[in-house]
Design brief:
Keywords: Cytoplasm, Methyltransferase, rRNA processing, S-adenosyl-L-methionine, Transferase
Subcellular location: Cytoplasm
GO molecular function, one term: rRNA (guanine-N7-)-methyltransferase activity
Distance between the termini: 51 Å
Main location: cytoplasm
CATH superfamily: Vaccinia Virus protein VP39
Helix content: 25-40%
CATH class: Alpha Beta
Function: Specifically methylates the N7 position of guanine in position 527 of 16S rRNA.
Strand content: 15-25%
Number of strands: 7
Length: 212
């Protein structure tokens, strides 16, 4: 099954106009993910058409909500990135970003490095090890997708941010309980409902910053 048309339809629904080269890279990423998944079990989703919706469109659904200033020549990190989600789709869609993927599982970082090589993603960096052990104050923004509870996300990854930086947590239903358990010194600036083409489940983007 060719995914060129479903990809274009999903991007249109998201209001994203990506060049053909980026669309080809997104589909090549899915092909690699399906190939590696057969051996390394990187994701429970097996079919490319389902990966398109639940991985690619889900990852890209945050872009319509971000200001251009959040994307322009910024240093981002994707923590607990697993198969490179959402970091790899974001790096493809936004080549101006410098995206660092951080994951502690060797097979996952091996896959990420192979994607970087095969898709020639010069704006992608792959780092192994636990996120809490990485150097502080390196990133303008840090994003996670199904990584941890908000309080844990803040405590494990908050140190990666430069002053005034932003944490982005991709969640399902609105995590009111998690928000209530945020540690002192952090606050939610936005709770944005995400519309993912082809997905009926609730999705939200929680935006967090340190108190001034």
């Amino acid at each position: 099954m060719t995914l060129d048309v479903p990809l274009q339809q999903g991007l249109t629904a998201l209001g994203l106009a990506l060049p053909e080269s980026a669309q080809a890279q997104l589909l090549a990423y899915l092909t690699l993910l399906k190939k590696w998944n057969a051996t390394y079990n990187l994701t429970s989703i097996r079919e490319e058409s389902a990966m398109l919706t639940q991985h690619l469109f889900d990852s890209l659904s945050i872009l319509p909500h971000l200001e251009k200033s959040a994307l322009a020549t910024r240093r981002w990190a994707d923590v607990g990135s697993g198969a490179g989600l959402p970091g790899i789709p974001l790096a493809i869609a936004c080549p101006q970003l410098q995206m660092t993927l951080i994951d502690s599982v060797d097979k996952k970082t091996a896959f990420q490095r192979q994607v970087k090589i095969e898709l020639e993603l010069s704006n992608l960096t792959v780092m192994g090890g636990r996120v809490e052990n990485h150097p502080a104050a390196r990133c303008d923004a840090v994003i996670s997708r199904a990584f941890a509870e908000l309080a844990d996300f803040v405590s494990l990854a908050g140190h990666l941010l430069v002053e005034g930086g932003t944490l982005y947590a991709m969640k399902g239903q609105m995590p009111q309980d998690e928000i209530s358990r945020l540690p002192v010194g952090w606050h939610v600036t936005q709770c944005l409902p995400l519309q993912v083409p082809g997905m009926a489940a609730e999705r939200h983007l929680i935006v967090l910053q340190k108190d001034h």
